[in-house]
Automatic annotation (TrEMBL):
Residue ranges with Pro residues bias: 142-157
Domain Glycosyltransferase 2-like: 84-188
Protein name: Glycosyltransferase 2-like domain-containing protein
Region (Disordered): 139-158
InterPro entries: Glyco_trans_2-like, Nucleotide-diphossugar_trans
Pfam families (UniProt xref): Glycos_transf_2 (PF00535)
Length: 389
């Protein structure tokens, strides 16, 4: 089926849902996107998957849309790559509405989310509307996720909802480009998911969006985007080689659009990539992992790349974070026993970094950076306020 045969009102928002398994509750995602009054078209991209299997799942939802302002269609995309990048890019290429939104096949939108985003966009003229984000608690199979914890990103300035700034509102911490995106802005900035990446494929997309969009708004009180908890095969959550996990870091810092940012913006980006990507690669190997020289070399390469991208950014890190970063930057040991000892040391330092509230996690080495925007005290305070104000 092509977009031209759908009938009904012209969509204001094209919602792209990518699905690579007939086991995913894609009908739940689609149904959650069509609860409002703003005309929405949902494009379900069947990734390396027979569309008839997906058609079975969404048949009832499709029938419920007859005669209403919403529509949906299925498209096929095959690339043989276990990455969400390809199908999401294909879905965006199919979009024709003024605005687009991305939705995981096991995620859902709270009722009225898209109406709320569009309302805020019309009030502010935003290129991007950032939604609230929360995790869903596991419920009955196929049922909407129950109430789960809020995700405290971005840790923006208190009560700030209009004209958010990459640096002052710490937008880099919202890794995924979720919410309402003006399609012309996405095209103007040349934003696409990084093809072939199985993790972090949206890193450049998100950072390019936050740094390049003219107006970013935050729907901090509206309905949330809910991350599903029942996808056992979710690609993003599987542990992969360090080089694979950090490919998105190297990709991001090599992008001219980010490399040409002012120093403060590059430092903000590097701080996020260190805390959320580089340190996570260590944490993901904290249990029963056999460390290799290749692991250590890949971690060091990531740390060196970030240092070159934004020299001096590390001054805002806590003492515990700096100790871990120093260990990652150290030359890789040669002997097998030394590799094992270095790996064990990284695990110890990673655990110490995660003991939030201790002096080592609150204080910076350079006390002049103690109250910097990205330093732990202000960042933690802003994160708490984000879920309350």
């Amino acid at each position: 089926m092509s977009p031209g045969t759908l009938g009904g009102e012209q969509p204001v928002v094209d919602v792209v849902v990518a699905v690579h398994s007939e086991l995913r509750p894609v009908e739940r995602a689609v149904a959650s996107a069509v609860t409002g009054t703003v005309p929405v078209r949902v494009t379900v991209v069947c990734h390396d998957l027979e569309p008839g299997l997906v058609e079975e799942r969404v048949r009832d939802v499709r029938r419920s849309l007859d005669g209403g302002p919403h529509s949906m269609w299925l498209v096929c995309f095959s690339d043989g790559v276990r990455s969400p990048a390809g199908p999401f890019n294909h879905g965006l290429d199919c979009a024709q509405a003024p605005f687009v939104a991305l939705l995981g096949s096991d995620d859902v939108l709270e009722p009225g989310a898209i109406d709320s985003w569009v309302r805020l966009q019309r009030q502010t003229g935003a290129d991007v509307v950032v939604p609230r984000l929360r995790h869903g608690a596991l419920g009955a199979p196929g049922a909407p996720p129950g109430p789960g914890p809020a995700v405290p990103t971005p840790p923006a300035r208190p009560l700030r909802s209009r004209r958010l700034d990459l640096v002052r509102d710490r937008l880099a911490y919202r890794s995924a480009p979720l919410g309402l995106l003006r399609r012309e802005t996405v095209e103007r900035l040349g934003l696409t998911m990084a093809s072939g990446m199985t993790v972090g494929e949206d890193t450049w997309f998100g950072l390019g969006l936050w740094s390049g969009a003219d107006v970013v708004a935050y729907d901090r009180r509206g309905p949330a985007y809910v991350i599903g908890a029942d996808a056992a095969d979710r690609v993003t959550f599987a542990t992969k080689p360090v080089a694979v996990e950090l490919a998105c870091v190297h990709d991001a810092v090599a992008r001219p659009a980010l490399a040409d940012l002012p120093r403060a913006a590059r430092r903000a980006v590097a701080t996020k990539l260190t805390r959320i990507n580089l340190f996570a690669a260590v944490h993901n190997r904290s249990e029963d992992h056999t460390w290799t020289a290749r692991d250590l070399a890949s971690l060091r390469a990531g740390a060196v790349a970030l240092a070159g991208f934004a020299p001096g950014y590390e001054r805002v890190l806590s003492v515990a974070e700096r100790d871990l970063l120093d260990a990652l930057r150290a030359p890789a040991p040669a002997g097998e026993g030394d590799v094992a000892r270095r790996g064990a040391e990284l695990v110890r330092l990673s655990a110490r970094r995660r003991r939030h509230g201790t002096l080592a996690t609150l204080r910076t080495r350079d006390l002049r950076a103690l109250l910097a925007r990205e330093a732990p005290l202000r960042l933690m305070t802003a994160s708490v306020l984000t879920t309350r104000l």
